[in-house]
Amino acid sequence: MKNIIITHKDVDGIASGAIVLRTIGDARIRFASPRSIANVLSRIPEGNGEIYILDIAVNSSTLHEIAKELCRLKEGGRRIIWVDHHPWPKEAIELLSKYVDKLIVKPSPSAASLVKEIFAEDDLVCEMIAQIGDDADTGRYEMELSNEYYWAGRDPGRRVYLLKTLAEGNFEDEKVKRWAEEQREKDRKLLDKMISEAIEIRFTKSGKKYALIDLRPKGGPGTAIARELAKREGIDFSLVLYSCDGGFGLYRGKGDVRLKEICESYKGGGHEYACGGRLRFNFIERILCSIFGRRYRPRKVKDLIRKVEEKV
User: Fold this and answer.
1) Quick one: fold of 4-179?
2) What pTM did the predictor assign?
3) What is the CATH number of domain 204-311?
4) Which of 98, 132, 140, 187 has its CA 20 to 30 A from that of 10?
5) What is the pLDDT of residues 119-178, one digit of tens each?
6) How is the chain classified by DSSP, letter by letter?
């Protein structure tokens, strides 16, 4: 049975998966997030082979569902290795350690750096891949390669190709460069359109300048818009309201801000400088949101905005 790599869909996740793929030689690739990892695991059959889970933290709301799937896979013959650099609750480590063969949760600038340290300490190509992960996951984006992989990876259909290209040590792939430039231009045009429609510049009580980016009801490239606004407007951070399912994200811009506590209070998680959570909209709220979009601002949205402006 073939090995499987399950990794996060961002640049750091792609880099982490590339390091493992380069090390083990062959594997099926799956992408997941803290929100979807239980569902992704549920679609994997029992059997021989290893499962590598990379750069994915866990949400407390799905912890027991994840444990159930890990137990099924381990009892069915799978060997499971989970590596992550996000902070985990103690109870999550204690529970999931029972169902994986190796669980490594350790602070690191990126998951890619941690994965490289574990699996490929002396590989110079993996060292370069880890640098890309560091540059992207710390939000610096000073390297052209990390920017290219960010823009090219905005299309989910390209991520497996990106991961495999990195694993081969091909840092000058013309297709990646073309995809990145096309996506960058597409997002730039979209941002110009949305600045007048979906973006509001506001200030916290402590004087931090931030962008409220309301993409309801259809969603959109929230992280891309937040990154571009940080350059254009010099904002300290962005609050992105994604869609009528209640999902939101907080992303650091130019400021030194801590954001994770707010996301965790909404059963989310992530980094201090990039995290997500979810508002619990009821059926009526979701219907009204789908009809009126960003013109509909229920109390739960107002409470989130107030908390952000009080805490940051």
Assistant:
1) Rossmann fold (3.40.50)
2) 0.85
3) 3.10.310.30
4) 98
5) 998 999 999 999 999 999 988 889 999 999 999 999 999 999 999 999 999 999 999 999
6) ---EEEEESSHHHHHHHHHHHHHHS--EEEEE-TTTHHHHHHTSPPSSSEEEEES----GGGHHHHHHHHHHHHHTT-EEEEEE-S---HHHHHHHTTT-SEEEE---S-HHHHHHHHH-TT-HHHHHHHHHHHHHHTT---SHHHHHHHHHTTSGGGHHHHHHHHHTT----HHHHHHHHHHHHHHHHHHHHHHHHHEEEEE-TT--EEEEEE-TTT---HHHHHHHHHHHH--SEEEEE--TT-EEEEEE-SS----HHHHHHTT-EE-SSEEEEE----HHHHHHHHHHGGG---HHHHHHHHHHHHH-
